[in-house]
């Protein structure tokens, strides 16, 4: 595949070592065993834009199965471009199914964050059917759960918050801080649209929220408000 060949030609071993540390690929870490080519995201985006119009779904699936993180990312970015830019509902449906069937390959936070709002979130806004998000949130699978939460970003932008609040309550005591970060981030985004959504959640839960979730959620509040909610944490 030309896209894969192009990515392999961009390999930077020094940068790959840095990325493997950054994305926690060591034994027992959340990205254990993942391999990197050492390509920065803008370059990967360039390759995705170059080939998404002519990409075959079998080729995209093969890329999603690839051991290299950037090749999987490129496949996912091509899927986003197909979903957003090609006016064919049957292709959008195929992208959605491919995404859901490959959650085990969407196995780090950047792969989730760059794609979940634009496919899973966008699909919800198109159909107002929350069954996919609920299925992912009930999976007991870290990356599927993060997809469900981060997909809320596009939904928040549309001014809808009920599903976000439900998910943040559901994952209030999640075992992994990657979920605390995701929930806190989405609460912060909701607060930028409607501050009462954030403060209402904080008023109810700030005393029992994980520290990471709380700190992420209050980043854009005033110093006085931050102090108020951090005191409630103690």
Topology:
Elements: H1 2-9, H2 13-22, H3 41-51, H4 57-64, H5 69-85, H6 89-101, H7 109-113, H8 116-127, H9 131-137, H10 142-150, H11 152-157, H12 162-170, H13 177-193, H14 195-205, H15 211-217, H16 223-233
Helix pairs in contact: 1-3, 3-5, 4-5, 5-6, 9-10, 10-13, 12-13, 13-14, 13-15
What's the short story on this structure?
Helix content is 69%, strand content 0%. With 234 residues, it is mostly helical. The termini are far apart.
Architecture overview:
This protein has helices spanning 2-9, 13-22, 41-51, 57-64, 69-85, 89-101, 109-113, 116-127, 131-137, 142-150, 152-157, 162-170, 177-193, 195-205, 211-217, 223-233. It is mainly α and 234 residues long. The chain folds into two domains: 1-114, no CATH class; 147-234. The mean pLDDT is 96. Helices cover 69% and strands 0% of the residues. Helix 13 runs parallel beside helix 15.
Would you count the extended β strands for me? 0
Oligomer: single chain
The end-to-end distance, rounded to whole angstroms, is 55 Å
Number of domains: 2
